[in-house]
Specification:
Ammonium transporter fold; two-stranded antiparallel ribbon; 19 helices; 2 strands
Length: about 475
């Protein structure tokens, strides 16, 4: 490949590239990827009933690989390429070396950083969506669903809000409260409607198979969010530092709020509830992490630990509408509700000075509460209007696009597994079990009962 003369210094780096920013961006991207693999793989595989552990983990594992290939072949340019319409870029591959080593559209880093970082966002969105479908979706249908949803649903949200679409100049979405979380929550709930419910027994009795591993997966998700929100400025600067601080402050507050409500109302602290509170805190702070003050992050944590708790623990149980759709891991509440809440609160709490620091050429208006102190209340209400319009658009597009995709796939393969397979679980779908030394309920063959390592002393021998 011939490169322009003088493009590189003696050290082999482009003159425009900031090495510190590049190093941080590669680190942040790796952290976001770790949220999915192994984070959500472990979380999903542990949070479901034992017979669905393999299938749930593998849905996430497959999606991560499939999204990467689809992203570089078409998805990235559809999201961030030359505009084909106000909501979509022109399809094309992001594989050219010349394209990947040029300066990114954001920051002083190579385009390769931008492409891969945005892939990590796309991948985790699809995997979060999968949480609504665990325990019954036909894996062949899932294999078709992932690329179709990426191309015709996710790319539209990314292009519209981040890729120079019609909302980018108006809607505040720092790191994906709408593009990622509102999208995955609405799409997951919609797909759950079309796929249908789990087996009746599973829906009534669905305990996690390993709570300790569940906490480990949740830990990957929490700490990985450092890269999720810290990497969004594409520089190792002040905004990244503030965003990381706000992220963990909001998350801890939300977790404590959720656990407190559980203890007050149900007289018992729930580990699963603590994880849900952690997730809602992470989601809520995401659209405003680098543009709100720490006191606002605490307020957002209080709201994210209480509003989704109410919609999940109270409203969901009383609503025939919510009861009619089997959202396995309550993705609608933890992501759609928390993401919408974060987007609205960002419009209220965004500090003008921080907006200008993050977006030097901003066209955003001020946060609503600051608009009154600066006597710019009209601008504050305009910003709130933009936040609400964006929420309506993302919700409507994902509901419609996901429905069309599910209907199309149902014409090719069944969306839901057969009832017989639903009773068996992993062994019927993949021929494998998560925790099987020998089959569930089977006695160890007599010839194996006394089989042991020949060097073990006799007192270590145990007959089954």
């Amino acid at each position: 490949m011939d490169l322009p003369a003088g493009l590189y210094t003696d050290e082999g780096s482009p003159e425009w590239m900031n090495k510190a920013d590049n190093a941080w961006q590669l680190t942040a991207t790796t952290m976001v990827c770790l949220q999915s693999v192994p984070g959500l793989v472990i979380l999903y595989g542990s949070m479901v009933k034992k017979k669905w552990a393999v299938n749930s983990a593998f849905m996430a594992f497959y999606a991560f690989a499939a999204v990467l290939v689809c992203w570089v072949l078409l998805g990235h340019r559809m999201s961030f390429g030359a505009k084909m319409s106000p909501v979509l870029g022109r399809p094309g591959a992001a594989l050219s070396e010349i394209y990947l080593i040029r300066q990114s559209r954001w920051g002083m880093v190579p385009m390769a950083d931008f492409v891969f970082y945005q892939f990590a966002f796309a991948a985790i969105t699809v995997i979060l969506l999968a949480g609504s479908l665990l325990g019954r979706m036909n894996f062949y249908a899932w294999m078709l669903f992932v690329p179709l949803w990426l191309f015709f649903s996710y790319t539209v949200g990314a292009a519209t809000i981040w890729g120079d679409g019609f909302l980018e100049r108006y809607l505040i979405d720092y790191a994906g409260g709408y593009v990622i979380h509102l999208s995955s929550g609405v799409a997951g709930f919609t797909a759950a409607y079309w796929v249908g419910p789990r087996h009746a027994h599973d829906r009534q009795n669905f305990p996690p198979n390993n709570i300790i591993h569940m906490l480990g997966g949740a830990g990957f998700l929490w700490l990985g969010w450092t890269g999720f929100n810290g990497g969004s400025p594409f520089s190792a600067g002040l905004v990244a530092s503030l965003a990381i601080f706000n992220t963990h402050l909001c998350t801890a507050t939300s977790l404590l709020m959720w656990v407190s409500l559980d203890m007050v109302i149900y007289k018992k602290s729930s580990v699963i509830g603590a994880v849900q509170g952690m997730i809602t805190g992470l989601v809520c702070i995401t659209p405003g992490a680098g543009i709100v003050e720490p006191w606002a992050a605490i307020l957002m944590g209080v709201m994210s630990g209480s509003v989704p708790w109410y919609t999940m623990m109270v409203l969901h149980r009383r609503s025939a509408f919510f009861q009619s759709v089997d959202d396995t891991l309550a993705v609608f509440h933890t992501h759609a509700v928390a993401g919408l809440l974060g987007g609205i609160l960002s419009g209220i709490l965004a500090k003008p000075a921080l907006l200008r620091l993050m977006y030097p050429h901003t066209t955003y208006h001020t946060g609503l509460i600051y608009s009154f102190s600066e006597e710019k209340h009209v601008e504050g209400f305009k910003q709130m209007g933009a936040q609400l319009v964006g929420a309506v658009f993302i919700t409507a597009w994902n509901a419609v696009a996901t429905s069309i995709i599910c209907i199309l796939i149902s014409r090719i393969v069944d969306l839901r597994m057969k009832d017989d397979d639903l009773e068996i679980g992993d062994d019927a779908v993949h021929g494998e079990e998560a925790y099987a030394l020998w089959g569930d309920g089977d006695r160890m063959p007599k010839t194996l009962r006394l089989r042991m390592h020949p060097r073990l002393p006799s007192f270590c021998q145990r007959q089954v």
